[in-house]
Structure formats: C-alpha cells, structure tokens
Amino acid sequence: MPPRTNDHAPESGRDTGPAEPTGLSGPSAPAGPAAPPGTTDTRPGTGDRADARTGTGAATRTEPEPGAGTGTRSEAAARPESGTEAAGPGPEASPSGVRMAALRRFSAAACRSRGTHLTVCAALLAVAMTAGAVAVGGGRDGTQTGARTGADAAPAAGALAVGALAGGDLDAGVRALQSHLRSQPRDFGGWASLGLAYVEQARTNGDPSRYPQAERAFDRSLALGSGNEQALAGRAALAAARHDFSGALKYADRALRQNPYSERALSSRIDALVELGRYDEAVEAADTADSRRPGVPVFTRYAYVRELRGDVRTAREVLERALDGASAPADVAYVATALGQLAWNQGDHETALTHFARALAADEDHLPALEGRARAQAASGDRAGAIRTLEQVVVRSPLPGPLVALGELYEARGADGDRTKAAEQYALVDAHAALARAGGVNSDLDTALAAADHGDPEAALRAARAEWDRRHSVHTADALAWALHRSGRSEEALPHARRATATGYRNAAFLHHRGMIERATGHDGDARRSLTAALELNPGFSPLGAREARAALDDLEAAR
C-alpha cells in the first residue's frame, strides 16, 4: 500500500484556544471528542500522491485572473471577479461519467506511438478532471458572475464553511462560501476558508486544478488581512498537498507564532516533519499537538508517527480510542480507514476488511476506504472483487496508487486483454505525473515508484534522486533504493534500502525491495531473511511483488 497519509482527514474549523489534552503518550489516555469536519486536512495525497491537471484550455478560459476588471488595485484584489456561471453537476456530465469516457477514449488511442500516446492520454485525463471542476464552480477563485463589491468584511464565513462542510457536502460548502463572498468580498477569513475548501476538493475529487485557485484565495485573504493565521495555516496545508514540505513547515511555523492552538497548523507541522524524514521532531510535534488540540486530526497523525517508529500497538490503541470518540460520519470513515490500513500493513486482512466496511458504512464514497478494501480483497484471494472495486476508484479519482494497483491486478489475472488494460493504467500514471507538474505539484515520488516497476528505470532514477535531494523520509529512501536497483546500481542501492527499514517501520514492500537488492549484491543470507520477513508480515502486500519475493526465495533455497 502507498505511503499512508491523512489526505481525507476531517479537521476542525475552530482554533479558538487550548483544549484539554488527552495525554496520548501516557498509559491510560482517553480519546478526546472528535473534531467536527472542517474545510480540509493537511496531509499530502495517498502515497505522497500528486494530484494535478494541466491548463488544457477548458479551465483557464472559465477563470479570469484575479484583479481583472476596473477599479483601484485594492478594490480589484478584494472583490470576486466575474467568470462563468457556476452550475451543479448534471447527470449527463458527472465527473465520474466523463472520466470513464476519457479512459475509454484512452484505450482507443493505445495503439499510437508512445509519445503521441502519452500526449493523448494527458489531454483526456485533463478533460476528465476539468469536467469535475467546471461543474462545481465558475470564477477563477470559484466566484460567480454578478458579484457585488465594496462591502465591509464580515466574520461569518468561517462558521458558515464549517457548518456546511460538517454536513458532509463539500461542494455545497464551497457554493455557500462563494455566495457569502459575493456579498462580503473583504472577508479575509472567508477567502481563507474558501482556499482550504479548494484544497480539499483537489484531493478528494482528484482535481488539482483547485490548487491554483486555493493559492489565489489565500493570497487574497492575506492581502485583506495581512499575516492572518487562517490563511497562513491554509498555505501550509496547500504546500503539503503539493508536496512542498519545506514550505509547509515554514507556513505552519508562521501560523503557530500567531496562534499556538491552530489545529491546521499543528497538523501541517507534523506532516511536514514526517515527510521530511525528521522523525524525532515529528514525535515532539505530535506530543505538542496532542497537548494543545486533541481531536481526530491530531490523533491520526500521532498514531502514524508511532507506526513509523515501529510502535504498532500504540498506533492501534490511539486509533481505536479516536474511533470510540468519533461521531460525525467523516470522522468515523477516516479513523476506521486508518485502522484498516494499519491492519493491512500487518497482514491482518480480515480485520482490515472489517474496518474498511465500517468506514464505508459511515461514508460509502470514501475513496481511501474503497481502495483499502480492494487491496485487502486481493490479499484475501478475492481478485475479481478487488478489480471491480479499484475500477470504481480510478474512474472517480485516477491517482497513481490505485492505477498501479489495478494494473498489477490485471497482470496477475492474465486474461485476454489484461496486458493492454494494465499498460493503460501505467500510461495514465505517466500522464498524471506530467499533469501534476503542470499544476504545481511535485510528483517525483509517484513517478519513481511506478516507473521503476512499470516504465523507464532511468526516468525512475532521475525522479527518485530529485526527491531525495528534497527530503530524506523512509519512503524516499525506499524509492531511491528500488530505482537504483532497477537501473543496475544495486551496490549503491543497498545503503538506502537499509535506511528505509531502519526506523522500525513495518512495511512488506520495503522488506521485499531490500531482500531483492541484498540478493543482487550477493548477501544471500540477508536476502532470505528480508524476503521471508516481507511475506510473513503481509503475504498479500502486492500481487506481483509477493510473487517475485516467493520466486526469489525458492531460488535462494535451491542454491543453498
């Protein structure tokens, strides 16, 4: 399973001051009340996933630049500009329907040369994602035509956003904010809330065209309310979503200097330190966040930090207490999914399926739970069910993690046409990476992982080296090790493979990669131990990876 993130974690919109600590690091820490869902979470995409879309024309034509129109510069910066009229999605143009059509057209283009093939793929994927964005909102900052200007700032937008989004309808919350800002365009808190809502839309809908819109909304908020904490915390969430973790840390620290109890900033700070590989500091940040703002966003991060240090028992206990205290459907879905992912990582597929079922009972459209259920189904022997579930996921959100998982399941099944179907999924990953870069998202980790196994090993290595230059997490260490190995540089890969497994994090894919690298470098005994550990930990960690690990173990045993 890809690197686990809090991409879809609900967040409280209330950063009003200290809360009673739960003492998660203590022996008998009760879970605090679940935070009501807010506008966004701050963790990067599944598996550090990159979500972006090029400006193919459809989006940019409907969204004029901020400040367009007449009036003074300050007035232009403060008011919503005109754009196309926003319309709710209709049945004839639903985002998932258009994405399915795009995937079908992509299949028809599969016989083209690779360069033309990827160009067509990129265009189709952009059109598919554009449909979702255009259906949701109109102006470049999401505002509609006919906006009134010159109104004084009003403080109601923050409460409006949280109230609407707590009901579980993100698009309705965005529309409510847009309506509010048409009448109160100088409300800097409203612009910050809208920016956060766009970040959430980008990740939950697989539509990263919202990231530039979020950036413009935050810029407008800061222009109206210089240095306001809401916008700074939002910029931290946006930077994390774009995988700019150094930027996320910078903005989170600035926000926390103004409001030490900002839940979003506290959460983004943990995320940034984790993804930068600064794990000791991440532990301290998680303890601090728990003492200041206990709630679901902090609990889930606290658990993940513990899991990365090999403390699975504490991670599980924290998540279980968080689930016991959760009441809102978004909270239940997110925490249950985190528990399912934790169980899956430990090879407990039955328990994982139970947690994913609970998540989907709370929110049947929770994509991380659907993806997790598919992986657990595959690991439990239900390949047909896994394929059906992943096909649903990638139509709605064609992200690299589920695309690669679906492609590997097609390869493992091996039916007529499955090789072509698998190639289509991998090519869509390539296209998505290009679109991500165009949208300001760093996609090098996704590129490295997918290309190492299913593309150009040299391209994988370039991407992995670029990512390693930015951050030294266990996931980047593993990606660099695997790309080096697949490029024929196994001796250089070995120290990175060992570093990826040095924190105590229990990940079967990491152990598989390490074992294959150890075998290639002549460390047969170490290779047997690593490969055995991978299969004992999670025998269904990957349909192709597990098969490769078993074959390598058989060869090693035969050579003894």
Features:
single chain; 560 residues; mainly alpha; 27 helices; 0% strand
Summed up, the helix count is 27
* Cα Rg: 23 Å
Describe the sheet with the most strands: none
> Which class of secondary structure composition applies to the elements?
mainly alpha
Order of helices and strands: HHHHHHHHHHHHHHHHHHHHHHHHHHH
Question: How many DSSP E strands?
Answer: 0
Helical coverage, percent range: 55-70%
TPR repeats: 333-366
Biased composition (Low complexity): 21-45
Protein name: Tetratricopeptide repeat protein
InterPro entries: TPR-like_helical_dom_sf, TPR_rpt, Ycf3
Protein architecture, described:
This protein has helices at 58-62, 73-78, 95-108, 114-136, 157-166, 170-183, 188-204, 210-224, 229-241, 245-258, 263-275, 279-292, 296-308, 312-325, 329-345, 349-362, 367-379, 383-396, 400-413, 418-438, 444-454, 457-470, 474-486, 490-500, 508-520, 524-537, 543-558. The longest helix is centred in the N-terminal third of the chain and has 23 residues, at 114-136. It is globular. Helix content is 66%, strand content 0%. Residues 26-96, 98-124 and 126-164 have low confidence and may be disordered. The chain is mainly α. Keywords: Repeat, TPR repeat. InterPro entries: TPR-like_helical_dom_sf, TPR_rpt, Ycf3. Residues 1-14 have a biased composition (Basic and acidic residues).
